[in-house]
Amino acid sequence: MNWPYIHTLINHFPIILTVVGSAVLLAALIWRNRGLWLYAVATLTLSGLSAYPAHFTGDEAAHAVRTTWYVVRAMVDRHDSAAGMALIALLAMGVVAAYTWWRMLRREPATLPPVWLRTVLTIVTAIALGITTYTAYLGGQIVHDSPRLAAPPAGALPAP
Asked: Is residue 156 part of a domain?
């Protein structure tokens, strides 16, 4: 196991949890169902919790691939900049979702969250989803769209 491999395993958690949590949040807003709300805020809270491990392993992976022949450093730097913004957005979303979850279980055990909290959570989640999606796109480009893979140096790839 190495850092790029560990990052590849872990980085999908905040992405998938944010996408699924956002979809369920949208359903909860439409159908106003308490069960959907609880599932959405729990999923978004877990997404926020998984953001830092993904960011940490990404920093370590960036150092590990520094001398890999097919990695373009500028692509890693763009992904890293976006990942910093995604970390902040996901942590903020996680905090708002956790607060909403707590309110639903402790303060308002039989109702939906208040309108102001639903609005704040929806806005923060939309921002986090957008930034996370863009960050994931940039991360995928590092290997999948690397211009160096189009013309590898002699001896870099085994003969077919």
From this structure: no
Q: Count of domains in the chain?
A: 1
Segment 41-88, tens digit of pLDDT = 999 999 999 999 999 999 999 999 988 999 999 999 999 999 999 999
Distance between CA 67 and CA 62 in Å, rounded? 10
Can you list the alpha helix ranges (DSSP code H) found in the chain? 3-10, 12-31, 34-64, 73-102, 115-144
Q: Supply the angle between the helices 3-10 and 12-31 in degrees, to the nearest 10.
A: 10
63 belongs to a structural domain:
yes
Q: How many residues belong to the chain?
A: 160
- Angstrom CA distances, 52 to 30, 112, 113, 147, stand at 31, 29, 27, 30
Is this prediction's pTM over 0.90?
Answer: yes
